[in-house]
Records
---
Amino acid sequence: MGAGNRWGDVYNYLETFNRLVVGGRVPDVGIGLLMGGGLSHLSNQYGFAADNVVSFEVVLANASATTASAILNADLFFALRGGSNNYGTRARRFVPLSAFHRRLTNGTVGIVTHATMRTYPIGKVWGGVVAYNNTYVDALMRAFAMYQKSGQLDTKSAIIADMVFTQNINLVTFVYLAPVRHPVAFSPFYNIPSLYDQTKFHDTFSDLIGPPLSTGIPR
């Protein structure tokens, strides 16, 4: 993957082959996520995004290009997978040479220009956003605790919580990496009354994460 890509572009391309990579949870996030570790909706099953990098192509501070992998330059490979911009920065499609020089002389080891990642099979999925009133925040906290205790052992499951107390609303995104309606992993949440429920089957993973939240909540 070229470093100028965003995860939505990557997913859309790979889904034509029924494959997916462990990447960002929001389609507009860039490939630089890999260098910060990278939480993903697939992390419960496959680990951090950085764990799934096979190799990086890197332009070093001396202007030479090299490959960092578990075999080649293994120490640099280790540092890039979570070292964030302490060890490298990603190059976008067009970056002036002056910006390259400034970054490289500010302590950055190099510029990542390309990443090769493992891919995994993917088909239809289930999930979406459910909104809850703050009235049920205690019940939600209990549900989260129960999910962490047992539900998350189902590695096809993932959740994200947005607790917006100042707006009297709590949003929970449910993701299940298989076409199963109301998976048992999320059962602690099903008896909590909701303001709205957008969960459904999706033909692709991109369709699940793509639509913006229509909540009026600033992000």
---
Amino acid sequence: MSEILNANPTIRSAADLPSRRREPTKKTKTQRPFGLLSSTIPDSAYTPDPFNPSSPSESESSDNDEEVEPIDEQEIYDLIASIQDPEHPLTLGSLSVVNLPDITLTSTLPPSSLSNPSLPAITTVTVLVTPTITHCSLATVIGLGVRVRLEQALPPRFRVDVRIKEGTHSTAEQVNRQLGDKERVAAALENGTLMGVLRKMLEGC
């Protein structure tokens, strides 16, 4: 990583990026996120402030336990656009590595919904990543960063599918196989050096 692969990437102004940062909403339960990096985040980060008047009471929480907050493509984009590029001191959004039109959400009913209609639908989030150059050697790392970020932030009813956009990378098929293989992803995340890179990428999220 000492040699910069793309010394002059195209950079988008932050004002040009699509965004709809939502106001913080009341959360029904204090839960750690379900994801590949959940064990790396301290418990204190998810403990509500008891002195904060906006913290919901237990009765409010129990009333809202069954509510499912809708999440759309813009919110997914907001979650991943601020990820730091592993090569440049810029975000994936500003480099157009992630783009709003390349995010899709597909919902399907779980098999057990026939016996329990109250179960929420399973939603698959598909993100197509566009590397800044077609021979980028960090494409897999970027894809892992996007996947880990979404695994951290989204509820368990979401499934994450991160791929390299067709025609944007010379070895897209190979990278996509790596990103789609859960066992290979889990093995990669046991690499201390890679974990250090991913943590740095996610510092600004």
---
Amino acid sequence: MERVSRDRVDQFRLYLGISIWLSSSPLKFAFDEDEATSRAWLVDAAREYPGAQLDGFDLSTAQFPHQAWLPKNITLGTMDLFSPIPESLRGRYDVVHVGLLVLVVQKGDPLPVLDNLLALLMPGGYLQWDDADYGGSYVQTPHPSVPCAAVQELRDKAHALLDAKKRTDFSWVRELEDTFQYRGLTVLDNTFRPIKDDIATPWTLNHLLAVYELINVLDQPKGNANDWWELYEKAVAETEQGVTMRMAMMKIWSFKSFQTNPISLLMSALR
């Protein structure tokens, strides 16, 4: 299975993505960091719930910040969401958060990932999944006089490459609420938000860095990605004139049922 790269450009892109997205409780939280948005969620939760135990997981430790710079109640470790969950972690967590798996989910089927996330949750626990509607991405220009052909071609070319690898069925993102309900979860909130104008430029820069990584990967075997690099430079020039690439962001918040009424539990937790 393909993984995101682990070089410094990739690390900077993921931290940029975090900046865009942005108690005495005995709660235990688990966060999968496969695409890094959970890292910001994790730190924010640690500040809000200083008595909670917060565990963050990623495929590798390559992009972990040093433990010395993290809140004391955060522990980081490794996990592969496509492998069986270790017995020691099953049913352990009150809250599980995961983000930006749109390019990680295989063959348009989120069920294998969802089942592993549910295995982490104890009955009565909560699952939040944040993601991007990548299939609905589009190019927007600030004025009809500003050209955007290169950015549009770059977007289409990246989608075509993913299509060749049979990874462009992104319809599951918009259908995730149905998938949650199919697995017996009670969906408490499901929100799609468009990228606002004031963060459209940094969001576009994040996309360009992702394409930069992609071209580097294509260029490595034979150094034959010249056409990609030429198109990339033209696209960068257009973004300097205000052209942006956007997509809606999704957040779904759900409850893993047990015998007690989940709405009553939620209201009790909010009191």
---
Amino acid sequence: MVHKAFANTLQPTKIMPYYFRAARTFDPEAVTIATLITNDRYPVFSKLVSNYRGPISVSIHINDDKDREQHMTKLHDMYQSNPLMKEFVDVHVVVDKFDRQFNMWRNVARFFARTNYFMMLDVDFHICTDLQEHISLDLSARQLLQSGKAAILLPAFEFVKQKDGLDSSTFPKNKASAIRLVRNKKLAMFHDFFKKGHNATEYQRWYKADSIYKVTKYQHSYEPYVILKNKGTPWCDERFVGYGANKAACLFEMYISGIEFFVLPHDFIIHQSHLYKEEARKQERSYNNKLYRSFREEVCFRYSKQFIMADLWNTSSANNLKRECNKIIEFKKVVAQMNDVSLRLVQ
């Protein structure tokens, strides 16, 4: 079953679910952090575990090379190093020769999550507030999640000076403190140099917000960190391997499927500084950006057909699709033809 579920990944790939399984039985209504790591990120992952103290489902990639056994030993050492690992963390090991199958790794972590809701979070981000308590007390957020038609998200920040983002114990612990750092130009929107990635969150609005609000300026480069219902949410397309557009592609399909995005008013995350593999990122972005262009058209036409055949085209479920996919040249013409064919089949 596991191999069928991940049949579109690069092969051969071996998946070992629950290589380590957390001792706790989790509340089904809890939010599981679904994340992915490689062995160079073990220290920051341990900090995430200690900070969140809730269910975590993590995919860990092990290179299938001459150092495989050494990598496995490091994994065991990491799991033993923090007592909270055994309490909260389910580890799923992916062994192959392919680096950076990010979307496949995301899907593995989500597939084996043991609660009804999951959070797509990169391991380098620090959750600065008591997210679990806030969600449990926010009736609007709970209802949105339960509907399966909404993703709730946390604004993402990073320190202007990289050295200030090294120690998460110094990060602000509430919204007011974060806003002060923003006003003092010490904290900024994550990846401020690429505004399309996060500006649909409308940070100026968040600074004043006291209740959850809807994202109204979505565009296809938007890639916030979101919490969703596990059942019914589209999966990440595993053709995206390497840096660039992989998470945006996940979120694009979710949006086109009819899922709306909402921003939590008091919670936020901050990126923990680290060096990037810039050369690899540049090469892989070029390929994935080309793939993403064709992927968006594919998703638009696939869901158009689905909505038409299911008689959902004239419902609110198709609103996101119409808003975003109408930007494609001749999209309306092709969909009109699909509608005509569908009507003739019904008659």
